[in-house]
Design goal:
It is built from 4 helices and 5 strands. The two termini are 31 Å apart. The protein is α+β, with helices and mostly antiparallel strands and 161 residues long.
Length: 161
């Protein structure tokens, strides 16, 4: 997190979480049929432990969405495992990070502000992807504003015992 008073909106606030594959908790895997990809979803362990049903994610929550291409058959369709899920290729194709910190989000217009969340895109090697992140704000604002702008993690926490 940046020092008090130095926050400026933008993906540069979100650092590359280099240790996420070994230190974060992979809490879900999502098949995206329309894109023929598999998404591995991770959360930092502190946020995982502190998350409570029907509550906002705590400050310091970092959510990772790691994309993998699905393995395709000769017909161009994703191959399925015995559970009917896509089989991912091992190579990571993209990494998206959603992080929440107190005071973040200030400076964004109300039309796109997602509470205190920031978003960033990274290449598989950890370098910052310079493409825009506005679609992250738009999608999360449009469909998950009442659920702390989260998708699968909110649902996962609400469903766990």
């Amino acid at each position: 997190m940046l020092a008090q008073g130095t926050y400026k909106p933008g993906p540069e606030n979100v650092p590359w979480p280099a240790d996420y594959p070994t230190k974060f908790i992979r809490f879900a895997t999502v098949d995206k049929a329309e894109r023929k990809i598999v998404r591995f979803l991770y959360v930092n362990p502190e946020a995982f432990a502190a998350a409570k049903k029907n509550s906002e994610a705590p400050d310091g929550t970092t959510l990772i969405m790691e994309d993998h291409a699905a393995r395709l058959g000769p017909d161009g369709m994703p191959l399925l495992d015995l559970s009917g899920r896509f089989i991912p290729n091992p190579a990571v194709t993209a990494v998206f990070v959603q992080e929440k910190q107190k005071g973040w989000g200030e400076g964004y217009p109300d039309a796109i502000r997602n509470g205190e969340w920031e978003y960033a895109r990274f290449n598989p090697d950890g370098t910052r992807h310079t493409g825009p992140v506005e679609a992250c704000f738009t999608c999360h604002k449009g469909s998950r504003a009442g659920k702390d702008f989260e998708f699968v993690f909110w649902d996962y926490v609400g469903a766990r015992k």
